Amino acid sequence: MPIVICKHESWVYRGYQMPGGILATGCSERILQDLGNRLRELRKCRNLRQLDMESLGLSYKYYQRLEAGQVNPTLVTLQKLAAAFDVSVYDLFRPKSRPKP
Fold it and tell me: What is the fold of 29-92?
C-alpha cells in the first residue's frame, strides 16, 4: 500500500491508503485528538464543566471521551456540539490560533 500524507491545518499526518480512500495509522487519531482539544478550549472559554454538557443534550461521560479523543463523533453529534458552543461545525475543527511556522 502506498504511503499518503493527510494535511490538517498546520499538521501533516502519515498513513496508509486503504480501500475506499480511508487513511489509517495516525491521521484519524490525530484529528480526534485535535477535535478533543478544540472542544476543551471552547468549553473552558464558556466557563462550563464537562458535567454541564448534560444540560446541552450530551452525556458527560460521552463528552469526556470526546475531549480525550477516544470516540469518533457522528455528524449529528458534531451538530449538537456546534449548537451547544454557538459555532459552526467547521469551527469545531479550526484551532483558535494557528501555530507559527
Answer: 434 Repressor (Amino-terminal Domain) (1.10.260)
